Amino acid sequence: MTKSKKGVFSYPDLVVVCGKVEYHDKNKDIILNPKAIIEVLSDSIEVFDRNNKFTRYKLFNPTLTDYILVSQDKPQVEHFIRQDDGSWKVFFI
Fold first, then answer.
1. I need a surface site. Which of 10, 17, 74, 78 has the fewest CB within 10 A?
2. Lateral strand order in the sheet of 14-16
3. Are the C-beta atoms of 13 and 19 separated by less than 8 Å?
4. CA 38 from centre of chain
5. Exposure string for 57-70, b = 16+ CB within 10 A, e = fewer
6. Which of 73, 75, 81 is nearest to 93 (CA)?
């Protein structure tokens, strides 16, 4: 999904695209225009999804407006929404 300058790729659990999907190359394994990314959290990768992955997604996906974290062990959803000024606001559902 996302390739950093070091060649590190991150693949989310779910991606939402509005309109035609734009791919990085003919392999069609990297989407360039995600609108929303959803991650289901688990104990082993929660810190990585919250920090490293979210940072990568924000840096390399200018079309990204929504980042959603779904807890699998409690009824909680965190919805991060990009604001007009580029900052992110979180809502707990």
1. 74
2. 14-16, 36-41, 66-71, 77-82, 88-92
3. no
4. 6
5. bbebbeebbebbbb
6. 75
Report the alpha-carbon distance of residue 24 to residue 33 in Å, rounded: 10
**Which pLDDT tens digit goes with each residue over 29-60?**
889 999 999 999 988 888 888 889 999 999 98
Q: What is the pTM of this model?
A: 0.88
For residue 48, give the H/E element and its range: helix 46-48
Strands 77-82, 88-92: pairing is antiparallel
Q: What is the DSSP string of 51-82?
A: IIIHHHHHHH-TT--EEEEEESSSS-EEEEEE
Question: Whats the size of the chain, residue-wise?
Answer: 93
Q: Which amino acid is at 75?
A: P
Closest by CA to 36, choosing from 2, 78, 75, 81, is 81
